Amino acid sequence: GTLERWQLGYDVLSARNPGIILVRVSGYGQTGPDAHKAGYASLIEGGSHRDDPNASGRPRTIVRAEDPQRLLDEWSQRRRVLESVVPQLRAFHAKAGTAPRVRYLEGASGIRTALFETLDWPSPLRGVLSMRDLLSVPGVEAMEEYIAGRRERQLWLHVLRSPEKDLPGGWPTSIEDYRRTRYVPAEYVFTMSTIIGDVSAAMISSRRENFALVVESLEYVEMQRNLHEVLWAVAAHDTAPSGRSA
């Protein structure tokens, strides 16, 4: 059989080591003449074995050959899992050096994750909020929860808005809601939302592009903070489209 051709038959292995059961796929963390023989462990761990009911004394394992496609399918699945976490691993690696840490978060769940992460940032937050888009994604319930979370933490938000992306009544300045609001001229429309912390900034798209980006970079955040302060200085105080309670 195949295992015998690879010198991995039971007789060969038991002659080398009477107590041997299996060898690992990669060989990591073990020694021995069969450590490099990939695939044997996968056959065993994948169910290609059974106990010998007629064996007496020391239990032994009998290995039977399976279709090699089973191994390929298993390795493909593991590869997909690894590929899904590589961006996060790269972000953690970059954090240790001078490179900025950048995370791309997709879909409504990604937008919610980025938004609620800012609740753990120090006060005050600076933001540009497109409320019509935020009420669409992550949604009204999520935004009400976010506002309540800021209120609970006494986390101030200095927010700039464009009238076109606000709602009648708006979200004006409110000491109770720890919010200071200013509006840019009507001809300027914010198509995305941005929240700026001390070392990180979160950018949130509309439903159309449906993503969030969190950048952890001192230089980038300093630039965004300065741009926000310039806009803040020239924006109008609470000239909302017309007093609702971000």
TrEMBL record:
User: A Gene Ontology MF term for this entry?
Assistant: transferase activity
List the Pfam families hit by this protein, alphabetically.
CoA_transf_3
Q: Which UniProt keywords apply?
A: Transferase
Keyword Aminoacyl-tRNA synthetase (UniProt): no
Question: What Gene3D superfamilies does its record include?
Answer: Crotonobetainyl-coa:carnitine coa-transferase, domain 1
Is Kinase tagged as a keyword? Answer: no
Q: Tell me which PANTHER family the record gives.
A: L-CARNITINE COA-TRANSFERASE, SUCCINYL-COA--D-CITRAMALATE COA-TRANSFERASE
What protein name applies here?
Uncharacterized protein
What is the species of this protein?
A: Mycobacterium sherrisii
